[in-house]
User: What shape does this take?
Amino acid sequence: MLVSALFLEIEYGPLLMGAIILALASYAVTIIPLSIMVITALAWEIGWRFLHDAVDDRLFWPIPIVILLLIPGRSIRILVQRSQRERAAAIAQKEAAREREQALVEENKRQRLVVSRELHDVVAHELTRIAMQSSLGELSNEPDEHRQALRAISTSARTAMTEMRRLVRLLNDDNPENTIAPPGEGIGALELSQELERAAGYLADLGFHPDWSVEGDLSLIPPGLLPTSVTVLREATTNTVKHGTPGVRCQLSIVVTDDKLTIEVRNELSHGLLDLPESGVGLAGLRARVTDLHGTFTSGPQNGWWEVRAVLPLTESTTPTP
Assistant: This one.
């Protein structure tokens, strides 16, 4: 109030006070409100002069002064805004770079996980077959059985080598579009029964006595469940070979209902012929995959049988939980 009174005692006090206010406002206020304030101030000055009969040839000369007073504040505001935009852009670039780096790290982790699963699901599957055929060959005195075992070993070794070469090529490929697909990627629902039949044939070749069955409409199975379904069949079959004894009965089944898919692989309990080290990623890995798809996974002895059982819902999301 005191400052206002002092300004009013000066001839151009009201104008000077308004100019100072506008100079400060030019920094703090955006362009549209500032324009309104300038027009209002000038209208107020001119009106004040008319009301006080102070109209003369100096009526309009304060206008350029007011404009000149607005320039510094407005210039400072523009510079500050530009600095803020540049700083925000730099922060955004750093954040984008950090996100790209994090995405690259996550992709590398995913690729390593897929490679680990591929090695276990495919290569280890064939190596287990080689180990079993070698053990069977040692126990047999029949030349024909020896030759059959050697042929099976040769086939499994070639398959494992092919898979190893494929993985090595993909790991050495710099093209980001060439990624490693999970086992079973691209398989059709109806081909799942063929995968089950191949698993039964795999066991039969090693001296087991498998029975296999398919119940329900396989076309109800969402594509997102098929890779995990193939993995369950392969790993459960490999587990039977590692811990079972040739000659025992095995049962493999796929059951599809309106709301769930059940995959079950069972073998009679026995003392295993092979003594292979545990990888630590077999059944535990299956449990993690099935759980990611909102399913349930169990493994263990059941009434004289060893049972591996996966239940996957058909009505839930088939996208793995992050």
